[in-house]
From TrEMBL:
D-alanyl-D-alanine carboxypeptidase-like core domain span: 152-261
Molecular function (Gene Ontology), one example: peptidase activity
Annotated region described as Disordered, given as residue ranges: 1-29, 106-128
Pfam families: VanY
A Gene Ontology BP annotation from the UniProt entry: proteolysis
Biased composition, class Basic and acidic residues, residue ranges: 12-29
The protein's name in its UniProt record: Peptidase M15
Length: 270
């Protein structure tokens, strides 16, 4: 029996994929020292519990490269709550990363950008509660992504993704490249018209709530970069949802990531 979904929210079938994907051989992942932004995620976790949301240059490697989606990796990093509740000097994370993780004092003393890392998105308040309907978010409910000009997300999702991008940049020397983020209702209609059944019904997409991104081919086509995001994105609340994975309830859509804490406030994570 399928799980009921509130009116106006996307069904499993409606949140289907939008573009094809091919496979390539798996390449090794290069791990470097990084530390989740505990202070930032602490604020996000508090907002997640206390303020429910109302319904409503490329990475190294060719952007034309084939995708590593045969990996079908389940996120192996800690949950957002795990990161928040863990001791800052020894956060629980994937073994390969944990072995190289520095303590907080060393990172703060060594990094001239430490203040920015504690507040990766100054001026964006993660405590803002979204009350607008799908596709009608206000300027106060959205934040620009500084590493991806022209793209926006809901406030908490934007702060978390910016922190994830900081860690990604430390690892690969490049920002996470996107092709989609928040979609107004008008844009959802445009996407539906151009992509037909491959696009979600306007007014039901998680893009319309500022809780979803689509990765560019320069990321999904880079095995190491994509594998790193799958393994570590969950520590920041960002995951490829089960319905979009191989064998899931929707079309195979490995480039689509959602901010799980926000999604789980309005529907089930499936």
């Amino acid at each position: 029996m399928s799980t009921p979904v509130a009116a106006g929210l996307p069904s499993r079938a409606e949140r289907a994929g939008r573009e094809p994907a091919t496979e390539r051989a798996e390449e090794p992942v290069r791990h470097r020292a990084w530390l989740p932004r505990v202070a930032v995620l602490g604020a996000l976790a508090a907002a997640t519990i206390a303020a429910p949301m109302a319904p409503g240059g490329p990475v190294v490697g060719s952007g034309n490269g084939t995708s590593p989606f045969a990996l079908d990796l389940a996120p192996s990093g800690p949950s957002t709550l795990d990161v928040v509740t863990a001791r800052a000097a020894a956060p629980k994370m994937a073994p390969g990363i944990m072995a190289a993780a520095p303590d907080v004092s060393r990172e703060v003393s060594a990094a001239s950008r430490s203040e920015d890392r504690d507040d990766p998105l100054p001026g964006c308040d993660p405590n803002v509660t979204v009350t607008s309907t799908n596709g009608h978010l206000t300027d106060a409910e959205l934040c620009d992504l500084p590493f991806a000009p022209g793209y926006q997300l809901s406030t908490r999702a934007a702060v978390a993704l910016t922190a994830l991008n900081d860690a990604f940049r430390d690892e690969f020397g490049q920002d996470i490249a996107l092709v989609d983020s928040y979609r107004s209702l008008g844009r959802q209609y445009s996407v539906k018209e151009s992509r037909g059944y491959l696009a979600a019904k306007p007014g039901t997409s998680m893009h319309g709530l500022g809780l979803a991104i689509d990765l560019a081919g320069s990321v999904t086509g880079n095995t190491a970069a994509y594998k790193w995001l799958v393994q570590n994105g969950a520590a920041y609340g960002w995951e490829n949802p089960p319905w979009a994975r191989r064998g899931g309830q929707g079309n195979y859509e490995p480039w689509h990531f959602e901010f799980r804490p926000g999604v789980e406030q309005i529907t089930t994570w499936h």
